[in-house]
Structures are given as structure tokens and as C-alpha cells.
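Reopening this one. Same input as before:
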Amino acid sequence: MSKIYDISQRIRPGIPVWPDDKDFRLKRTWSIEPGSPVNVSEMTLSTHTGTHADARLHFDDSGTDCADTPLEAYIGPAMVLDISANIGGLVLPEHLSALPDRVERVLLKLFPKFPHDGWDPNFPAISPEAVDYLHQRGCILIGTDVPSLDHQSSKDLAAHFAVDRANMAILEGLVLDGIPQGRYELIALPLKIEGADGSPVRAILRTIA
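Same output, byte for byte:
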């Protein structure tokens, strides 16, 4: 029987978010009581809260929104690679040499331990050269446990635009602690939100028999 690993952050009050972005908030609007048979809540959150998919609209005003983003990249065979001990501040092609010659989806563990309780502004980034290296091996999705492919201070978003040129998909904010390196099936679909530049996802890995 296959095993399922949940690689999503728990969305909760106090979840770390990008500096100056919207904090998560959940408010009960209806409660079970006489005259009301159900609980209903409203949520306030950023489109990039927790584990999420970036739509092209996130970094390109003419890019595709979440509702029209093709889904094929977000489900299928994936490779988990832990390079957290080797990279310093930037992932380069040589850090990816353990990958097979052909790989469709790559999930990179860059944090030695995921920072659930605080924001780490010095998270590692992905170089455009590393994106190109993955593209040459047939990669259609790059995922990582850090909150962005580019450094927090980046203004040119070189890694995002390298992904765009390669027509790859992006997952960010994964939780890969305790996930053995190897091959899995990834399922991490963005929500069908018209006009949205990103979407939280419930990302899971399923072992391949």
C-alpha cells in the first residue's frame, strides 16, 4: 500500500508570511445555535500564504491567473532532493548533479529544518542557471521549501523569469522535513480563483510501489 506524506504548512493564526503581507485571519460568522444548524467562517489571507503555487500573473501583468493555469504540472512523478547541507545561499547546477538525466518534477529541500515559528529573511534562492539545468532534463515543475525561488531582496526575479521562459510551474513553501529522498507522486493543485496571482495548495506526496 502506498504511503501519503503531507508536505503542506498548517495555515493558522501566526503563520509566518512575507514581510508586510496580509496575516492569516479566520473569523466565525455563523455558529451552531438555535436557528442556525451550521458553523461558517470567513478567511483573510494572502494568495501566497503557506504552501502555495505561483501563477504567472504574480510576476508578469500579462501572465496567466490561477483559474486558467494548466494543471498537468501539479500532479505526477516527482523527485525529492535534500541539498540543505551543501548550497550556502544559492542553488547552482552542480548542487543538482544527483538528479537523474530525466526528471519531470523536482522538489528541493533547502532549509535544514523548516522555520514554522518565524520568518527567515536569509533563505536560499535558486539561480537561473539551476532552472535552466532542470529544464534541460525535462523538468516541468520546481518546488522548494523556501518562500520564494528568488532572494527576499531580489527586484529582477531572475529565477521566476527563468522558470517562465522554460514554461515550468512553481511551488513554494513546501515542508520537506522527514521526507526521504527519492521518487514519489506529487499532487498539489492550485485553486481555480479568477484573477489570482497565486493560490495556497494542499500538497502531498504518495509513495510509488
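So the earlier flakiness isn't reproducible anymore. For the record, The chain has one domain: 4-9+47-207.
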